[in-house]
Each structure stands twice: as C-alpha cells, then as structure tokens.
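Standup, Tuesday
Yesterday: got the pipeline producing structure tokens again.
Today: sanity-check two examples.
Blockers: none.

Example 1:
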Amino acid sequence: MKYLRSLVSKVSIPAILKVYKFYATIGIILFYSIQLSAQKICTGIIIDTDSKEPVSFATVWAKHSLHVSCLSQLDGSFTIQIPKGDTLMITSIGYADVSIPYALIPSTITIELIPAAIQLETAVITPGKNPAIPIVKTAIRNRRDNRPDMIETIDFIQYNKINLRLSDLDTSIQNSKFITKHPDILIKARDYDTSYSVPFYFSERLTYEQRKPNSSPIVQEIVQNQHGANFINSDLAEKYIASLNENLTFYGNLRFLSKDLISPISPQAILYYRYYLRDSLIHDSIMYYRISFKPKNLQDMAFNGYMIIEKHTGVLTEIQATLQHGANLNFVKSLTLQEKLEKQPDGTWFYKQQKFEVKFTPELLKDTTINKFAPPIAAIKTTGYITDSVLIQNYTQHQQIPSKFNLTYRHVKQDTSLLSKLRTDTLSSLDITTKGAIEASNDIALMRLSNNILSMLLYGYYPLGYIDVGPYLYFVQSNEIEGVRYNISAQTSEKLIKGMRLGGYIGYGSRDKLFKYGAHYSLHLPTKLYGALHASYDQNICRIGDYKQNLGYIRENAWVQSDDNFLSALSSKNPNYAVYFVKKAMIAQEQQITPNIILKPQYMYSKHYNAPFYNFDTITNSIDYFQVHEASLNIRFSYKEEISNSHFRRMYIDTRYPVIHLNVNEGMFFYNNQSGTYTKFRLVAKHNILVGVGKLKYVVETGYTMGDVPFPLIEYMRGNETGASGEYYFNLMKYMEFSADRFVNVFAEYGLQGYIFNKIPLIRKLYLREIMTCKLSWGDMTQTHSNIFPVPKFTKTPTKPYIEAGLGVSNIFRLFRVEYVWRLNYLDEPDVLKHGLFFSFRFEF
C-alpha cells in the first residue's frame, strides 16, 4: 500500500488524464469497428426494367431500421449501410416493391424495378399553406421558357418505336380452339406478365433533326423498319401515333383523340389538381423536388402521378402520369405517359425519353373489367433522343442532308444496321417475337376478315382482293327526281396496281327509269411529298347551290361528302325539292409542297339541267340546261398535322392549330348562245381550342362571287329539314330560304366535357357531356343575278344575321346526342320552325 501511494504521489494528474483519453479513444474505435463489421455497405443504381432508364427519388431503406434510408439520385445511384440481419427495401411510386435479404446483399448492385399501377395514398389535408403550390406555380410561370421545343439551336437523332397488340388475354385463351390451331400468334408482352397478347404492328424509326435560329427545322429519315399485320392499316397507325409526338409534352395540355388532357403544370392546372410535396434532394448543388398530384374531380381529363421539378427555374425534369380511370373519355381503358429530360452542356433541358401507352376497348360500359369478349388494343410508343455531339457528328459526316424544298423522289437504301448502333431503347421480348407472330396472323382467315370490316368502317369500302366495293352509304339514295336510286360502285385496290386507282359506278332511278354512271381515275406522281393526278366523270343529283360539294372543305375525312345517301334517306322528314341533275367532268393535280401546304389546281366542266321544281326559263327563253367551264386553285394550310396516305385515301390527323382553305375560282357559263364570266373566292377556317373548363370548336366560311351568274351558282345557306341534327347545317332554316353572293357563316360549339354532370351524384356515372351551340349566317346580294335566270321569289338575303342557338347533351350511351335549338330571328316568316328537338348519331372518344 505504501508503495502504491508513493507511486501515485509521483504521477501528476495531467498524465493520468492523457492515459485515460488514450484508452477511451481506443475503446471507441474498437466499438465502432465492431458495429461497422456487422453492417454491409451497398452501392448501386436503380433502373426501369423495360426502358433501362434510371429511377430517381426511389426510397432505399432498411426494413427493421427505419432510421436507415436514402433516396436514389437523378442518375438512379445510391449508397446505404444495412445493419446485420436486416433487409434491403426499395420502393418507388409506379413500381413494385423490391426486398433483398441481408445474406444476398452485394457491395454493388443494379436493381431493376418492374412497373406497377400507381396507387396514391389518401392524403390528410391540414390547415396551413401547401408547400407544393409555390413550386408548381414556378413551373407554370416559366413553362414557355423551359419548354424544350423553344430551344432554337440543337442537333439530335430521334428513335421511335411503336408496338400495337391485342392485350390482356388471360391464360384460358391458350385452351381455345382458335389458339390451339394458331399458337404462334400468342406472346407475352413482358417476361413478368401473367397475360398474353396478339401483336398487330411493330416499327422502328430513326430520324435526324437540325434546328437553327430563324429557319425551319431540317428533318431527315435515317432508317425505318416495320412489320404490320393485315388487321390494321399500318400507315394510319404510324401517322396517328406519331402525331402524338407533337403533343406529348406536359408544358401545355396534351392533345389526344381530339381531346385536351389537363397537364399538371398547365395554366388551368391549379383548378383541377391537388399537389403533395413528397421529397427533395440535392444533385450537383441544385435542389430538386418530387411532387405527386391527383385530380380534384373523379371524372376530369386529368392524371394521377408524380413529377420532379428544379427549385429555382421550375424546369420539369421528369414526370410519370396515368389518366384517372373515371375520366370522361370513351373507349379508352388506360393511358400512361412518361417523360424524362436531360441537361445539355449549355444548361438547357431537352428531351431524353418519352413513353406513351394506351389501351383501347370497344366496350360501351365504362366500368366493366371483362375482357374475354372485348380485349383491349394496346399501343406503346417509345421515343428516345440522342444529343451527344460525337455520335451526331459521326453520322452527319457520312450522310447527305436533303434540300428543304426538294420534291424529287429519291430512293435511299435502308441501312437497318444503324438501328443497332443508334437504338436508344433495348428491344423487349415483345419486340423480338412480334415479327413472327404478325406473319402468322396474316395467314389466318379470321384476321383477314377483321381487317376488311375495319377498312370498310374507316374508309367506306370493303376489300375484295383486287377491288374495293363501296362506298356502301351510296348503295341506296333517295331524292325527288329519281325516287329511290340503287347504285353499284367499286374501285381497284392497291393489290392490282400500286400507284394507280380506277373506279366507277352505275345507278338506276325508280322514278325517272334512267341509268346513270360515273368513273374516276387517280395516278401517283413521282414526288418526294404526296402528289397525284385525278380525273373523274359524274352524273348525279345535287342540291341547288352546292354542286361542288363545298362542305368537303370542312368534313375532310368523311368519305361521303354528298348528303344524298342512305342515312339521309332514312332520316328525311320533308322532301327536298331544291335539287337538280348535273353532269360533271374534272381533272386536277393535288400536290403537297411542304408538310403544311397542299395545292390543288383543277379544271371542271359541268352541265346543269333545268331544275324541275325551280325552273330556269325566262319570259323570252326556254332553257333546257346551261354549261360551265371553271379553273380553280385550292390552297390548304395546316401546322403540325400528320397526314395518312393509303392508296389515295387521305386521313388528316387532328391538330391543335387552325386549318385553312383558300379557294379561287374563275368561270364561264353558256346557255342559248349567251355567255358570261365570274370570279369566286372562298375561305374556310376551322379550329378546336381549349377555353376555360371546356373546348370551343368553330368553323368560319366566307365567300364572294363577282359577276352575274345563273342562280344555282350563288351561295344558298345550308338549311336542314331532316329529322337529324346537322353539325354544319342551320337546323331551323328551310331549304333555299337564304342566299347571297357574299356571305359569312359561323358554326360554333362549346363543349364542357362533363364539367357540370361530373359533379352530380348518379348522373356522373352516365358520363354525359354538356354542349352549347351557336350558328350565324350573314349575307348580301351585290349583283343582279336575276338578269340571267329569275331567282326564286321566296329566297331572302340575310342582311341581318340569321342566328340559331342550342343546348344539348352528348355522349348518351357513348353514341348519341340530343340538342334543343331555338331560332332567334326571322320568326315572322311563314311555315318556319321556331324551336325544335334534334337527335344525331355521333361517334366520339
């Protein structure tokens, strides 16, 4: 004891503290070393199993240690320490959860997430400001500056992949007799799917685009590889789905099936969405927010999903959105959109990848889930962008960019090896097996029959090998001159002669006991853009004032432009005496000079026979007919509109911009050794635009005739005395009630798309849509046309605009529309309807 005391007395207190600190430090190091040895450090990247694109903002966490967690970065990377015995968990909205036991956790890993339905949890609203709203408002405020389409200088290669298939067939389909006989047509869309598909169409396409300030983009097709089943028109499918590229951006409302879907960062978005701030992270010293969104109303055209927004600029860097199931959109089972952007060296953000997936179903009942008798048709479009300057320079150095206005057709050999070099999206098992399945389906009689019926419904003709029979609505006609007229009509198909079409008809009238006939011929021109020569001869009954069927400028996709057809014969309640017999011969050239401008010069000779109910005869002359020679030029203007050309059958895909027709016509008429000349101008503009909570659809047509003409050549406003509602007719106006040689017609319809009905219990389950219409006609008679033939005395000039307005309900059983219309002026005229109820059949999405 004495020894110890003497030893302690010799040691100073500071020395003791140093020893204590030394051993304490060693102890702490040993303790944490033991703890660290009981953990695994895992570094990895999270990607989408289909696109192989990184998944950001995925939550990576330890299942039994909730304080251990992190978020994947914008490039999908993460690093986490997992305690011994715990389980690694990965969760992300829109994907199935992933769990990895401790024993299987490697030091580095690539995790592929499988897409799953988005299920947003129920949010509890508490008092106070929503922190997500200021972020969203920044994105809305800066949307025009941040929009990638506004980048003036950029070169990029675009890769498009389109896949169409009959989807969601359950395993019982394998036991059906049809599949037992044709097993090669059945495939799985994805390796992890439990349902089967029958593919119809697959294509890959590479294009190069160069943008420079103050000039139009230069676009060159590099290569295209496609396989199409007979079940579907490949050109129409390609053009229609490709047109979505122009509208697949969330910086404005998305246009689909002529409907405007509300973007979560559009100017009206705050009215339609609830927003929730979910997470934030810092990447390259910049803050990013992940915000989820859901619609306020269950039936609005709005989405569920999430988006990632940069803090200061409001740039939308990533978004995934699924159209809510209850949206008032017909025949669409589901719709999912994804968009990712990539930061460029100059600091701007440009597209990196876009994905569009939609499922169509023919079911009239919205909420049914039975697909056995009505399986949905799925369309998947994936678009990737290459902006890497090295890859682009390597391509441009070995390729020739075509001149912007070069119309000469140049055949370029397709080098499909470029697809493997420049493909931005890996081919799935669906893509790889699609070609064989399509070839197998083309040999099946039932598939060929389905294609024929589809073609008939779309174009009006039924294919029979080398000829197409139709249009079927012309098989039976009815008018006051011929009585019931029966027609047989057909034309050659592409299988007989590609690039040329010959057709004709023969008809017989039950009242006049006369045969009529006609023929038409078309020839493709060897130009890069669409060009064709047309010639025709026709004998037909025409409405007075409309022998040129000017309604065709408005109803461009309607394959029956005349109103004298089978449907009008069924719906007519009053006979139309304002008709007469006309023979016409025409030759024209149709040429697309740019993607937005189509020219059509035309020469027409016509012979107009005396109208039996409105005679041409004058006091001094008996007139059997008059003849007309006309030369005209029609110019069609559009913008960002895809046009499908399938053997001279043109389909104009919907565009959000106005479409304008300008027609100039110089004519000369002859009768009884007398003649005269005239000039006509006609302008037609049509446009669909989102206004407030609804959509405004309007058509304006105006014209002017210079010079005196026989009265059948002046403009008669389109009256309607049938029982059906005419979209571009004045429903309460009598035939030939108003005429003019200069005029303006306006047809406007405002559809609220169910905005009111969607908020009414029970009623909202019917998916009805509100409509308001207004039609106006103004005209003046500046010439003395009665000097030629006496104009019918009952015809008036609408110097005070004729107006009618209506309220109605559309989308009744997805197919019908009812409208109550009021005539607002000219109410003192004899035998006029002042108001009335009108029905119509209207197929719309």
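Example 2:
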Amino acid sequence: MAFRARRAPSPGASHTPFSAPTRHVPRDHLDADERRAAALHDPKGVLSSRKHHTSGPGPLGLADAEWKLLIGITVLAALVRTFRISSPTSVVFDEVHFGKFASRYIKTQYFVDVHPPLAKLLITLAGFIFGYDGHFDFKEIGKAYDNTVPYVAMRMLPAIMGIALVPLSYMTMRALECRATTALVASLFITFENGLITQSRHILLDSPLLFFTGLTIFFWVTFCNEDSKRPFTDEWWAWLTLTGLALGAVSSCKWVGFFTVATVGLSTIKQLWILLGDLRVTPRMWAKHFMARAICLIAVPILFYMFMFWIHFTILQNSGEGDGFMSSEFQHSLGGKHMQDTFADVAYGSQVTLRHWNTQGGYLHSHDHSYPTGSKQQQITLYPHRDQNNLWRIKHVVKDGEPDLDWKTQPLDYLVHGSVIRLEHVPTDKHLHSHDVRPPISEVDFQNEVSAYGYKGFRGDGNDNWVVEIEHGDSSDSQSGRRVRTLRTYFRLRHQLQGCYLFSHKVKLPDWAFEQQEVTCNKNAIRANSIWFIETNTNELLPASADKVNYKVPGFLSKFLELQSVMWTTNAGLTDRHTFDSRPSSWPRLLRGINFWMREHKQIYLIGNPFIWWLSTASILVYAAVRGFLILRAKRGYQDFNNTMVNKYDQLCGFLVMGWFLHYFPFFLMDRQLFLHHYFPALYFAILLFCSVLDLLTTMLRPRIRLQIAAVLLVIAILNFYYYSPLAYGLQWTRSSCNRAKLLKTWDFACQDFPEEYSHYASGQPTPVKPAGQVTIGGPGEGRPPMVVDDVVKAHKEAESPAAHVVEPGHDVFAAKEEPKVQSSGVVAQQQQQQQEAPVEKKVIQAAKDVVNEQKVIQAAKDVVNEQKKEGEKDADEPAPTDHKGVDPPVQGPHVPAAPAPAAAAPKEDHEE
C-alpha cells in the first residue's frame, strides 16, 4: 500500500481519540505554511474533518436521514433480541447465580459474589418493579419458573442493553469519521452476531458490561472530537464527565471493565505526553488539562464505583449465606448477628468462646463424636455458627500432689502473656488435649492431633496444658497488649509439652466430622493461622460494673476494602475445570461454545456468528501486516505516515487494536475458569476494527460499489445468523441441519439429540434414532436425552463431556451448589465440597457398567432356562436323577424359576436371587 508522501499536518491537526488533541491556536499565530495546511485541512477554521463524519446538521452531527436510519436499525435489533424471550420458561445457565443474587437483594440477605454490584442491582430493580418477592430459589438449570417470577422482565433488562449497543456502535463509527455505510455494517454485524444475541437474552451480566463498554468508547471519542475544536467549553466538560461516569459504570458491572479503563487511560497518557512536547502549550495550560482528566477520568469513576458498593451494603443489611467469607467485625454489623456487650477482662474461671483469626472458619468447637482413626478421642473442629458446643472454661493447671484449685474460691487472676491454662469443654467436661498422634487429614510429622480428653472430675495430665502467648493488642485498648482482653487481644496457644501451636487452616474434615474445619497442633505453624481471640466472656467473679466491650462497627471504607479483598481471593480460587470452559487462545478462532440449556430436544448453545467472528479476527491480522509493511517502508525513508489519510486510519485502527488487545490478552494471565463470553468486549473492538479496515479499503471506490460490498457482507452475515438461530433461541432443529452446521469438529452442540425430521416435534415424540447394538442409559424424561454407552466411554476418555446428555454448566461456578451442612468459609471449602460430590460423568459411567452387567446376568439366566427346558424334553421313561450331579448350579442374579421335572424326580432346588 503506497501513498504519495505529503507534508505532515500542523501540530494538533489530528483530532482522533488516540493522538494529541488540537490546541486552540489563533491562525494569526501560525506561519504561512501552517496557515496553508490548516486552510486545506479545515477551511472553516475548525480542525475536524467533516468529510465523512456528518451529512448535515442535527444532534451529534447526524443528519435527519441518519437518525431515521438509526431508529430503523434499533427497531430491528429489538426484534432480534426479544424474539421469544420468554422461552425457555426455565432457568438457563448462570441465571442460577444472578437470579439467586436478585432474590438475596430483595430479601436483604447478605451474599458474596466475585463481580461488582451494578449489573445485579439493575436486574434486581427490573424484578422488583414487576413484583418479584425473592422467594424463587433458582436452584438448578432447567428448573421451571413459577408465576411469581417476572423472569421475562428480568431478561428484558440485559436485552434492552444489548439493543442499545447497536445504535451506539453506529454512532461510535461515525464519531471515528467513518462513512455511514461502514457504520451501518458495524451496527448490523452487532445486531446479527449470534453470541451477543444469546448472551443478551438471559439474566446475565455480560450484556450490561458490553453496553457500558460501548458507551464509554462513544463518550471518549466524542470528547476527543470536542477537544479538537476548543478545550474547556461546556460541551468539552460534559463529554469528559460522561466518559468518567461510564468508566465507573463499566467497572461496576464486572472487573473486566477495568480493561476499558486501561484503554481510555493509555489514550489519555498519550495525549498528555504529546501535549507536553508542544511548545505552544504553557505549563499552566498543561496542568489544567492534566487536572481535568485526573478529576473526570480517575476521581469520578472511583466515586461511582464506591457508590455502587454503598448501595450494595445499604440493601444487604441482614445476615445471609455470604457471612462466612467476611471478618467477625463485618459479620456482627449485619442484622441477626449482633452480640450483647461482654466482659473485657479475661481471668481464670471465665467461660469463653474462642475464634480463629485468619480463616474465618469460626469457633473452637467440640462435640460428642470421636475421630475414626488416631486416638479415637473426641473431635475438635472449627464451627462457623454460635453453639453451646463452642463454650470453654479457663482453668488453672493442677500440679501433681496438689489439690484442685476451685476458681470460685480464688481471687481474680487475669490472663497475661505466659499464663499456663487448661481449657475445659463445658458441655462434655473434657479438656483441650494434644499428643504425639497424627491428625486424620494432615498426616505429617509436624502436625499433632488435637482432641477433647477426660471426664467430669478427671484431674487431667500434662498434655492438657497450654501457654498463652500474646501476639498483639488493639491500639484502642492500652491494656490489651499486656493482658488478655476480649475482642482486643490476639494470642497464640502453645502446647507446653509438645511445643506445637493450636492451629487451623482451610481444610475440611469428612462427613464423619460434619465437614467442619480441621484443628491441629502444628510445630511449624503459619503465624496467621495460629492466632486466636476471645469473642464472648462471662465470669461470676466479675462485678456487673466491670468493663464491657463489643465488636467495633466497621465503617463503609473498611467494609468496602475488605469486600474487594474477598472478591479477589474468591475469584482467583475459581480454578476447577468446567465442562464447557475454554482458554483464550481458542477464542478468536471460535473453536468452542457453551451449552446453556437443553430440554425437549432443543438446545441453547452460545456460539458466535462464524462469518462475523472470523472476519473480525482476520482484520486484526490485516492491520498487523499493513502496519508492519508501513514500518518497513519508513525504515527505507518513505514518508507514508505523513499522508493525512494514512495517519488518520493508522491512529483510528491503532486505537481499536489497543482496545482489543487490552480486553483480550490479560486473560492469558488468569488461571481461573474462563469461557467464550469473556471474549465479547474484545470482539466488539474487533468488529469495529474490521469496519474501519473496510472503510479504508473502499476509500477509492464509488459509493454504489461500496454499497454493493456492504450489502454482500450483510447478506452473508444474516444468512449465518439465520442458520445458527436455533441454537440462539432454542428452536426446533433437525439432526441433519445440525451436523451440516458443525463447521469445526470442536463445536460440541448436541446434534444427536435433535430428531431426524421436524414432523417428530408435532408428534410429541422427537426421539432420536438409536444405533443398533448400543445400550441406552436414561431417556428423554426430565429433559435428559438418551445416552449410549459408547458416548459415555468417549466422554470419560476425552475429558470433554459431549452435549448428548444434559450438562449443568453453571453448577460448578462460584456459589452454584447447594449449601453444605455447615456454612463454608472461603474458596478452599467450596472446592472441597465440589470434590466430595461425584462428577456427573463418573455416575453415568458407573450406571453404564451396571446396565451391561445386568444384561450379562439376564442372558446367563436365560441360558440356564433353555438348558433346563432341553433336559425336560428328554424321553419321559428316562429315570429321574437321584442326586445333584446332573442339576445345574444355582444362578447368581435375577430369580429364574426351575424348569418342570417329572413327578417324584429330583429333589427341590432353590435358586438364589
């Protein structure tokens, strides 16, 4: 691509969102050459090329005809996005989570999610307006909605945002100075992109995320256009402020929105850098530009983001299933978790509850159940709820030969650093005990079992002795660093004989301990995991007027920062593989989709429009090739980048490629579960990039030819949309059509579940044809299609389960499973719970083996019957056997009656079942 070299435009003449904004410099201050260049570039004196940007007067520079066109494509997008939006009438994919979160908001019950609250709040608002009371549990994929759930209204919220993205894409392309034809192609590509359609029709967060991504880019580009004319006008401030608000909104939907912040941020840094080198810009003027951007693009988004969490905390005022992830102070700020004031001073004889500081696993706990291994003494665990079994009495150590000390007759003796104590479990009268025995789970040499040992009246032994080591106190309590104070002193308990520390970590015990958290005595303890504090304290010897304390009430900032930390930790912990997850390297090639829902021989499967998807990917490669070619030419002395058109498209495409890169490559750094829909923000930039490349390549063509090219592209895109629409809408489809649609072998939508002909749907029995010689497991009941043994074995070997059976893709995502017997705390607890539940594939494989074995047993039984019938058909005069030698042995398996024998013949023979 060779262009004639031209003199570069004057500084600031470029007014794209990726270069330095034009400074408002009077023409009298320009030299003759600069005035000629400015006159040629912008004869009206406003440095913004309107050749393609506008066709006439009107809002945002669009002519009336374009506004009519914009309304038309918006209506078309509405028809495409809302077609049969009420179907299916059951829970789809991650509606399991986000519908449940809406229920929690309405019932004001606290929960924890890995995403910020804005999109969830909008979905909740839609449900609340239409009368949702929050009592539907969204328990599993496929659960039918009842008439109390306005699920259509809740689905409409993401759909409306998906619709709004279409005109936004058009206006963004026009703001980038692309032709109306190109902008139309971009908007219709967004309209008919099957993946975007599927994602925007359900109660999911990606549609709001994409909408605010598109809104941010549109506001930013429009601001740059205003900045190119004259900075610091009312319009200039308005667009800059709107950009900041949109940045806050996109970040408040998902943390992926911070990639949009990075896109605008890098563009801003480049602007300020170029301004810094512009000698016509005074330091004072540069500082003003810097402060304006810092306020609007940093402070405003941060305040907006924090405001969304303020709303979140204001609504969720009551205790809920997410309490266990938060600190004790946070938990006790919630309704239903408040605690009465408790005595501050801790002394011998005090009845206390001890909490673990680091893991939020709960209280030091014991119950009348023994370990199945080791000492087989009474279990010690962490339990996250208040319970009588959390109560412990602090007692003196009894020396050999000395009488027991009755704490009631002794003067108050406060606990200090170095105090040696025994802890007696109040409900069972046993002592907290440790010895040189390995624990049942953490079976390593430096870990000792901790148990409850003894009985009422038992003096105990040296293995019951623990030394108090104060770690630190609270700055608000000057005494808490010298002696143990309730809620203010953090301490460790060292075993006096073994030298190990009372310890707990995020490891769950099995069912025999009710999946509670393990407690051990660790000789190499991580300090944070061996720190404890006393939460409640009563002592009969303390007067009622003694000092009392309670949890500090955390302020908003403290709760906000704690929740960000919990979200980060939880998000990083979602590392388990998922049946339909995928890695970023596969996304631009569209190698795999996601099974959303499958019932009644229909399927919703998220897959992109391959024509649009692969064109957008190709445009990135084209840009890289052309850019590399121009760089090589520049090395040879060519001045292509001084050409106005080359410079314009280079800046424009470079900005979009930067947006694509920043929304795509960070996922390579993540080890968590990832899905195809994580690519959608990058896909948006890629589609805009393709249309920008198209705008460049058709620059020299006549308008009619450009229209013809656009028409061909749109027809192919619409045909692809139509061909894959059964997967987007969950429509009727045939097996042959499905198989033809599989352009790649890695596309794993369930063609075998569709009938051979559409007429099977009308008959009400669209049962797929089963190949001969295969054993069917299950059936079409409950929406679970037939599955053959060959498919099961294949699923087991390939580690990618086929979509022939209903896979519940949302079930192993965060918070999707049913709550355990006791409330889990942290990601590790959730992962262990998932590991304890047998995967669907293993259960199906075992069922297949059982069926095959049963078939073999039945066949063996039939062989026995046939053999006995042959014996009965022998000559009637033949004498009957008088012993068991000629009788077949008993058959193991289903009961088979014995063949008839002559009267008074062989003795009776019992066949075992």
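Quick observation on example 2: Residues 329 and 551 are 6 Å apart (CA to CA). DSSP finds 22 helices and 18 strands in the chain.
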